[in-house]
Design a protein that fits this description.
- By secondary structure, the chain is mainly β.
- It has one domain: Rieske Iron-sulfur Protein.
- About 0% of the residues lie in helices and about 40% in strands.
- A hairpin with a 6-residue loop joins strand 6 and strand 7.
- The protein starts with 11 loop residues before the first strand and ends in an 8-residue tail after the last strand.
- The N terminus is likely disordered.
- The structure holds FE2/S2 (inorganic) cluster.
- The site of FE2/S2 (inorganic) cluster (FES) has 10 residues, from loops.
Length: about 120
């Protein structure tokens, strides 16, 4: 369900394509929400930056370019870069994943709705 810039889904400029090298990870604040984003070759991924296990920045973690996972720097839980799913303990909850669209030299993001926590 990715929408290109200009479609109904609001897209916000995240960065320029050249701002991130292949295999790099960074964080950005979008509308007050911290997002971790990564580039693997020509593919881009974005998930919420705060680990679902504790308040740690996933942008300080390590990505596996083959498995497309992001390892939390604190306790080593693995998250899917594609879906945000928690793949290993100690994290059991996913982190939200966000739609990325590359248009010419710009990288755009549509931030997912924030889930309400009871
Ligand atoms: S803080 Fe991320 S796995 Fe514990």
């Amino acid at each position: 369900m990715s929408a290109p810039p200009g479609a109904s889904e609001p897209m916000i400029k995240l960065c320029e394509v050249d701002d991130l090298a292949d295999g790099d990870l960074a964080r950005a604040e979008i509308d007050g929400r911290m997002i971790a984003y990564a580039r693997v070759a020509d593919a881009w991924f974005a998930v919420d930056d705060t680990c679902s296990h504790a308040k740690v920045s996933l942008a300080d973690g390590i990505i596996d370019e083959d498995d497309l996972t992001l390892e939390c720097p604190k306790h080593g839980a693995l998250f899917s870069l594609e879906t945000g799913e928690a793949l290993t303990l100690p994290a059991i909850k996913p982190v939200a994943s966000h739609t990325i669209s590359v248009r010419e030299t710009g990288v755009f993001i549509a931030v997912a709705e924030q889930e309400e926590h009871a």
